[in-house]
Write a structure and sequence with these properties.
251 residues; alpha/beta; 6 helices; globular
Length: 251
């Protein structure tokens, strides 16, 4: 698909990631402002964001068995013990056209729908100003891609004003690389071939080029994820932090 870019990574986390002061300070120490008390949530889930320029990490903790309106499949996986990257969001310019293109390549995708959840004692429903399309879950690695398109430019401008505090203030300006270590199945690869146009493949590497951003699938017996951030501040250069099996590292 054309005009895809990394938007954000959804990460399942334990309670201490959102509440432990030492861990929060460790995130601050690499130049990432993090206010875990901020962010959306209900009685069933809590989201806290780490804003990286126009991209971000969405850290999710499930607080109740029903998930409080969070995505059902992801809630089930969280309660079954999943931690780390669960959803990899790509921004797309025309989600309807992309949906039809994926269907034409026999990829089993969900129709584009807005994210909604109930809050205030289940009396109110909140609908977010974007639509999501979910690709099939991978079999070899424990996450899935999904595509996202904001309703309009007004919605994009509206959302960007809430992307604070932001690492941009520390000259850390965005996500440049995501490296996924693990073993893809042939079915997983077929999804990637359908989704991405510009990729290179060798024996142990599938490299996806998204302009200034890169995604790599690297064959490994041990699953883990590395995210590299564009850092123009020597005080934070090469610093890193681990959140479960996901490592965030400044360039």
């Amino acid at each position: 698909m054309k005009n895809l870019k990394i938007d954000h990574l959804v990460i399942n986390v334990d309670k201490f990631i959102q509440e432990d002061k030492e861990l929060i300070n460790s995130i601050h120490s690499i130049g990432l402002p993090y206010k875990p008390r901020w962010g959306k949530g209900t009685k069933g889930f809590k989201v806290s964001n780490i804003w990286i320029g126009k991209e971000y990490f969405e850290l999710v903790r499930i607080k109740a068995k029903d998930g409080g309106g969070w995505i059902k499949d992801w809630t089930t996986k969280y309660l079954d013990g999943h931690r780390g990257l669960i959803g990899f969001a790509l921004e797309v310019n025309d989600i309807e056209e992309t949906y039809q293109q994926l269907l034409s390549q026999n990829v089993n995708v969900s129709p584009p729908e807005p994210l909604t959840f109930r809050w205030f004692f289940n009396l109110l429903t909140k609908t977010m100003p974007w639509r999501n399309l979910y690709l099939p879950e991978f079999k070899g690695v424990p996450f899935q891609f999904f595509l996202q398109q904001l309703n309009d430019e007004k919605s994009k401008t509206y959302m960007e004003q809430y992307m604070v505090p932001n690492s941009r203030d520390n000259a850390i300006e965005g996500i440049t690389e995501v490296n996924i270590y693990g073993k893809l199945t042939e079915g997983d690869k077929k999804v990637l071939y359908a989704l991405f146009e510009d990729y290179e493949e060798s024996k142990d590497l599938l490299k996806i080029n998204l302009g200034a951003q890169t995604i790599r699938f690297i064959t490994s017996n041990t699953y883990r994820v590395e995210v590299v951030l564009k850092c123009n501040n020597k005080d934070y250069s090469n610093k890193k932090i681990n959140i479960h099996n996901l490592q965030i590292q400044n360039s």
